[in-house]
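Tip: read the tokens left to right.
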């Protein structure tokens, strides 16, 4: 599995925690920024991560901002992206199992680093169930057309 990760200034510290965790898990990750605490615009980084996915460079993406809300709104505007804002393990698991989410959005100001790692692990380790859920995902993707 290969991932892209991005954050704005409000998520940069959690992004670094998650990158270290991914490294420990031996999961390859492309960091698209931001790299400083200077104020920046989250849609720019959401688009960078989503483009890595839609261009086939990575399998999935991780986005972090203060709450995760802005990132999820921006990411879901990109054709082919199913971004899920997750604040707990159950939601992360269901976003993969039922919705085949290819981006997880997390909030640094909402989640502590320990919980964020658990949420991310649940998301990474859960496979899409397919079956009846595929029909629903197909309907979501048809809305883009």
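Filled-in amino acids:
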């Amino acid at each position: 599995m290969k991932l892209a990760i991005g954050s704005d200034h409000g998520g940069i510290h959690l992004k670094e925690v998650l990158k270290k965790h991914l490294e420990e898990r031996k999961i390859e990750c492309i960091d698209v920024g931001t790299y400083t605490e200077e104020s920046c615009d989250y849609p720019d980084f959401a688009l960078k991560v989503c483009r890595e996915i839609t261009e086939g460079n990575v399998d999935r993406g991780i986005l972090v901002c203060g709450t995760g809300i802005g990132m999820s709104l921006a990411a879901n505007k990109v054709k082919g992206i199913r971004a899920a804002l997750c604040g707990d393990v159950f939601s992360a698991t269901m976003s993969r199992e039922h919705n085949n989410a290819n981006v997880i959005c997390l909030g640094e100001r909402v989640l502590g680093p320990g919980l964020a790692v658990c949420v991310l692990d649940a998301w990474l380790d859960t496979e899409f169930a397919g079956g009846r859920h595929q029909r629903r995902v197909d309907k979501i993707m048809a809305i883009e057309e």
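The chain has a mean pLDDT of 98. The beta strands are 2-7, 28-31, 60-65, 83-85, 103-107.
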